[in-house]
């Protein structure tokens, strides 16, 4: 019988590129894009350059639904390809639906982007955090912030931006460990700073209105017992007189 085995993406990439070359400048069809799938994401720079030459802007726009579902991570050269081929004003999609392409197409206008809308895939393509404001970084949702590269944190020098990422990333252990070390070193003291001990009230402090005071309770109880005795004695006297 025949023997078959699954091929890895690395083994399939050369086959995919032969297919791309065989197109000889013709546009990809939707079916071809779907068939290539994640292989398009794994292409090297020069392979992307060749692929972009074979894909018209109109076809690329039609391919976007399939490409955006792949969640690619682009390097600087790939980002330049995307921005030159698809200026953001030619794409009729909002930040959320642009997914991983959002931070690429808006790379030069990040101040116009609401970071609360960036998906995790878009954050993975942000690149240097120095280009983002501290206000924007603090607005990242925790799931998206957890995908920030540790190398970007290592390269970050702005203390306020470090604190902003610490705020938005929540308790993600990977990010928290990296930022704690960086901020402790930058501030020269422990980060986050230890909480101050709770204030202790003096032992003889007067209670707040409505507070609990054992002395007051005892005094009230004594008054109540005294009143009850007076009532009982008065009642007994009335009975004797009768």
What does this structure look like?
The protein is mostly helical. Helix content is 55%, strand content 0%. The protein contains 14 helices and no strands. It is elongated, with a radius of gyration of 35 Å. It starts with 8 loop residues before the first helix and ends with a helix.
Could you give a short description of this structure?
With 242 residues, this protein is mostly helical. 55% of the residues lie in helices and 0% in strands.
Choose one word for the global shape. Answer: elongated
β content, as a range? under 5%
Q: Classify the secondary structure makeup into a structural class.
A: mainly alpha
* Main sheet characteristics: none
Mean pLDDT: 76
- The end-to-end span amounts to 122 Å
H/E series: HHHHHHHHHHHHHH
Helix content: 40-55%
Given as residue ranges, the uncertain stretches (5+ residues, pLDDT < 50) are: none
Topology readout:
Elements: H1 9-22, H2 30-36, H3 45-53, H4 57-68, H5 76-85, H6 95-98, H7 102-105, H8 120-123, H9 134-138, H10 142-145, H11 150-155, H12 159-168, H13 173-187, H14 214-241
Helix pairs in contact: 3-5, 12-13
């Amino acid at each position: 019988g025949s023997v078959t085995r699954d091929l890895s993406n690395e083994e399939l990439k050369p086959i995919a590129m032969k297919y791309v070359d065989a197109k000889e400048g013709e546009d990809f069809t939707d079916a071809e894009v779907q068939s290539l799938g994640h292989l398009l994401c794994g292409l090297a720079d020069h392979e992307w350059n060749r692929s972009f030459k074979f894909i018209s802007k109109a076809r690329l726009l039609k391919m976007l639904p399939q490409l955006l579902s792949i969640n690619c991570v682009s390097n600087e050269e790939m980002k330049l390809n995307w921005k030159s081929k698809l200026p953001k004003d030619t794409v009729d999609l909002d930040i959320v639906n642009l997914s991983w392409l959002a931070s690429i197409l808006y790379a030069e206008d990040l101040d116009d982007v609401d970071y609360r809308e960036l998906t995790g895939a878009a954050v993975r393509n942000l690149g240097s955090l120095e280009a983002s404001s501290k206000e924007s970084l603090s607005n990242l949702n925790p799931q998206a912030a957890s995908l920030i590269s540790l190398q970007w944190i290592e390269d970050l020098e702005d203390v306020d931006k470090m604190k902003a990422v610490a705020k938005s990333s929540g308790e993600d252990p990977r990010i928290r460990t990296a930022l704690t070390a960086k901020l402790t070193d930058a501030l020269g003291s422990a980060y986050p700073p230890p909480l101050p001990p709770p204030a202790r009230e003096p032992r003889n402090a007067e209670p707040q209105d409505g507070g609990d005071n054992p002395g007051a309770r005892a005094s009230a109880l004594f008054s109540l017992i005294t009143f009850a005795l007076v009532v009982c004695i008065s009642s007994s006297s009335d009975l004797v007189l009768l």
